[in-house]
Records
---
Amino acid sequence: MMKTIIFFAVVLLVFVIAAVFAVYYFAREPITSLPHQTEKADQELKLSDENKTVYIFDEARGNIASPSGDSIRFFMVQAVGSIPTGKHILTQKKEGSAKVARAKIKDLMITVISNKTAIELQNPLVREEMRSHFRIEFNRITREEYSRANPKTDPEDLLLATYIEDLYFRTYNVQ
């Protein structure tokens, strides 16, 4: 009888440890929020393919009043994509047009977030609609700014300027 109780206690302990590891694994932050990432900073990470750069754009942080007026929404939006190295306006930090592109994208992020209520932002279909809208507008803005900065660029190059692979919308409501 005692051996059976000890056996069940050991099995229970193993299950508890496995559950803790599972919760830790699934609850951790995605790889895009790196510990050494600074606020309002662009970060580039090299991929295994040397012709592309992973670009993390997370300047859109702040707080806005909820459209329903019942809370204040704190938000952060991250755009994660792969970009051909040297061919993208956002990687050219020394030029003034890169600042214009980042300002337009930040405005786009704030507009997309502020037009939705807190309940809508929790709906997966609404979030996917926001992602697709943002991808289209992000590509439009970057192509416009890139062609303005490089008027002699072949239009075929501009079509390959940006590939937004994922967007992360994080919003926090405070009553």
---
Amino acid sequence: MLGRYLPLELDTGPWTRKSPTLCSLLLLLTIAALAVLGQDKVEIVGLGRHTKNGENVTLVDNTVIANRANFDDLADCNFRKLYPDACDVTIKDDYIELRYNYGSKGCTVDLLSENKSNINTIKFTTGVRNPRGGDLTRCLDDGATFEKSHNNILPFVYSVNNTAIKRFNNKGPYNGTDACYNKPSCRGTNGKCMLRTFLEVSWSWSSEQVYAYTHLVGERVSQSVQQEQQLAGEMTFNLTISSASAFTMWFAKEKTFNATEDAVCVPQKDPIVEPVTWTITKGDHIGKHLLVFSLLQQNATFVYVDGKRKGSPGGPYCELFVQFDTANYSLLVVNTSATTAPPTTTSTAATTEAPTTGTSETPRTTTSSLPTP
């Protein structure tokens, strides 16, 4: 077939002896065609803009593990200059915390996993606190239903490439006309059929109880887990995502949720993004796994009024956060002291101090907003 792309006078037939020039040209065309075929699955992933091919990933040069001892040096002035839209990250001895505040543009982190039990499972703690200190009732909305939690909602996604993250941040889940499990019921919520969706956590309070929710973005209100606990200064729960159809939330108690049950706007099979990590094939971390995790901006999700979708929220009013146990994950960053230019994207810096409290300012972003790849 390659002969069709040659000048007519060079195509002398299959039995004619080819000139060295023609043979060289054929060889180059064959190599080029194979190279193009080999690039079909190449994707750019994560904050560092690493290269993923299939289930394998090659980290960019100078990707290192950040910890409490070296983090101040890694997140120096040069880092902040190269990555002006910094993500607000804290590293402690036992956890890595991502903070999400009013006006956040979203945030992506690259996490190294050495624990084989986490290859197809994602585990973290998520929570809420008042960024100005004091009672959570000052920033949570009053109401014991998911619809009352839209001012403190945190959408997130994992295990997808940077193109998908950008799409989710701007437009929410991918739509698919024939993807719905129950199209009439989906339309009844002002919803749209989705090829697949991602998750979000949110918070409200009522009668001295804090209510936590885990919900499928874009699905009807009932596609969520709701649990409550006695009001306290800071509230957290553990979340484990074990497949493309199930997750376990542990707030007041442990509860596993089957995302395919009663869903209307997603496919019956694999309605949420599958939790996977990718095998690192080169460098110091060869054989270990990369998890790309993103906190998405508010445009990625929806407000619900009387069970119907009504635009996007404008929060959060409280400070929301995610914590990864350092027994399971390490934070990867690009060492900017060894490079003079960042990857072609906005990136993530970090701070080692906790957020300032005790002020009465209007909620606003901290140093953080993470990359919109």
